[in-house]
Amino acid sequence: MANKESYTRCLSAGQLVELDACTRCGECLKYCPVQEVTSDKSISPPEKIRLFREFIAGTEGLKSRFFGAGRIDQRLLEDFAKAVYECTTCGACGQTCTVGIFTQRLWPMLRREMVRRGLGPIGSQRETPGAVSRTGNPYDRPAAERFSPWFPAGVRVAGKAKLGYYAGCTGAYEAQPMVRGDIEVLGKIGGPFTMLDAEEEVCCGFPLFITGQFELLEELVKRLVVAYVRKGVETLVCSCPCCVNMMARDWPSFFGAKLPFRIRHITQYVADALNRGKLIINRGIEERLIYHDPCYLSRGVGVTEEPRAILRRIPGAKLLEFDRHGAESRCCGAGGAARKVFHDNAIAIARLAIDEARQKGAQKLVLSCPACYSKVGEALSGYDKLSGYGEIEGHERQLELVDIMELLSGVI
Question: In this structure, are 283 and 266 located in the same domain?
């Protein structure tokens, strides 16, 4: 196909430098979760970068300036699109990159370029903008059911307050024990907090951002920011790492200014409440716990110590660690919207975490991400929520999954 438009339009100057910086050393291959379960080098981080550099060179390089833009084979473009969308965007490759390429931010921009050329997203990912437009969430579920039936009785939400809570779409529709735990813990801390109405609390924009579909983002972000300002919010708390990452890193850009309130992950807020004596743990649990660091919480916004501080405060609990933890943690397989299309990869990656947790002797796998909660649960049970029936057998190794706030709500 002829290529008249630039392949670099979606990239910053820094990202262009990053593309040139890749030495193809292969260090990232040791940490890529997709490589771990597929061993397919054609979809590896260095190969994606190499191909995209070829696209640029063929259309904007020195030769193309003299003789005109070249032609990029359509099949090659389609293969590249598949490779960039099969990625979980976990950022492990960038975390270990010897030249410091920030891949967790680079991959969405390459996806955006594929969308611009009509080559992405893939499969059911294409349905996200329509679903968000209709119902305010990527699952196309009724807005009226966003806080039902999981919202706990007896917890009062203020009409206006300095503290705001955002439940998020995946928590509200796919990981309800997680957001129920959030609310119960906030209720125990005391003090007023506010929320938007079910119809007002729309998608944060992350599913659109991560799939390269940017058209609705400015509208969504401005709608949410203005709504929280009207509620008097000065600190906005959320438990979904993808939402927190989107809010902290990208909302200011789409809003067009610095946010008029602070963004915090719920573990940051709760750890602070424990330290100040505003939350008391009343009983212990004699169990071995292992905590999984979500990619967009650890590598995304750098929150790794607060969840561990909370778990260490529970009397009797023994905290174990994965070999790779903190900013080095292994993806659970649920990220980057890849789970919507590459289900087998996601299940295989999730089972690596399950297997290691069992090998370490953990009785509970503690999560802090609704996508992880949903997908790792599927990996354990074999029940596929996307299709509504069991496509695979349940995993032979079983252990209990629990969200960190769900766990904490049971001991306060």
Answer: no
